[in-house]
Amino acid sequence: MFDLTVLGQQAKKSARELALMSTTRKNELLALMAQALLDNEENILVANQKDLAQANDNGISTVMQDRLRLTRQRIEEMAVGMRQVIQLADPIGEVEKMWKNPDGLMIGRQKVPLGVIGIIYESRPNVTTDAASLCFKTGNAVILRGGKEAFYSNQILVAILQKTLKSAGVDENAIQFVADTSHEVANQMMRLTQYLDVLIPRGGAGLIRRVKETATVPVIETGTGNNHIYVDKDAQLEMAIRITDNAKTQRPSVCNAAETLLIHQDVAAEFLPKIAEKLAEHNVELHADERAMQYLPDAVAAVEEDWSTEYLDYIMAVKVVDSITEAIAHINFYNTKHSEAIITDNYFASQKFLNEVDAAAVYVNASTRFTDGFVFGFGAEIGISTQKLHARGPMGLEELTSTKYIIYGDGQIRE
């Protein structure tokens, strides 16, 4: 079996070097890595085609293949993401505040790297470069374990980044790749407490659940996205149609896509036929409750499972509610605490929704598709945390740091 111990030892050693690297030097190296992606476009696309060919053979759906597929534009976006990270302030070494205590000690809280970060993820090759750039900028070594679906793509991306570092005289083990996609090695990684400071899973509900149940390494949970659009009685219906269509169909295979549509009873009769017509342009299958069915003759009758399902496909659950209070209760019961949206012109309804919905990102009159580190100005993201400890929402540079206290004295002793 593949032994992660060597990778862990190499990462620990590299992390010590990275933690002391200047911001200028880190930015220079990120620029070189971004350019290397562009210089190796053809090789990356060839490797990605191998993954796509296997996806076809393994019967992976067209929608899920979209998560896997790389194009020249997507490679350029990966490079742009790395270059945006260069423009962001480096948090490492920043002293958040200083104060003097009664003993005359000057006490400060300074941001430091987490150390060695392990990431287990599925399908999307852009996670490789996003994670590598954010970890590198924050002085963290990273061990990447992607899924078998994107094995060749991930492998060549890491090889390009490592070659760039080595050519620049830097330890290439700052960014490492686990060349084994077996469950046994994944389980080994989840227990690599001697070398990993934190583990971040990024993928479907099954992966995240397994990591939470198996890992002895501290975990930052990045959650699945059972996200809702609630159309209030005071909504502009044309706006609601545009937002719902975008949230569901613009890229249905990602975690910030909407999965359930809730409609206030006062606008259901007018809104539902219109949104059904719009979603039909993308062949979206609607799973409707009994009240919604009377306006959606082509819908499938919803079952209990629909309210808690992250489809990641052209499927959407639909429910009519009596009030915003019922909508919020439904959301808080079934959601995965990722992204939720209300469409309304009523200020008090919008504030109630913002205050009472429990999620990492809550929107008023905007699509859930915006929950993204790139969009939020973080350059890229390591994932979207749906937990409340340490980090919540899109995780950028700040979320990949810890703190230590630095204390200046002039001879004090404690009596």
From TrEMBL:
Query: Which CDD domains would you find in this protein's record?
Result: ALDH_F18-19_ProA-GPR
Q: What is its EC number?
A: 1.2.1.41
GO BP, sorted A to Z: L-proline biosynthetic process
Catalysed reactions listed for this entry: L-glutamate 5-semialdehyde + phosphate + NADP(+) = L-glutamyl 5-phosphate + NADPH + H(+)
Which terms in the Gene Ontology molecular function aspect does this entry carry?
glutamate-5-semialdehyde dehydrogenase activity; NADP binding
Tell me where it mainly resides.
cytoplasm
What is its subcellular localisation? Cytoplasm
The family note in this entry says: Belongs to the gamma-glutamyl phosphate reductase family.
The record's listing under HAMAP family reads: ProA (MF_00412)
Q: What does this protein do?
A: Catalyzes the NADPH-dependent reduction of L-glutamate 5-phosphate into L-glutamate 5-semialdehyde and phosphate. The product spontaneously undergoes cyclization to form 1-pyrroline-5-carboxylate.
The name on file for this protein is Gamma-glutamyl phosphate reductase
Organism in which the protein naturally occurs:
Enterococcus dispar ATCC 51266
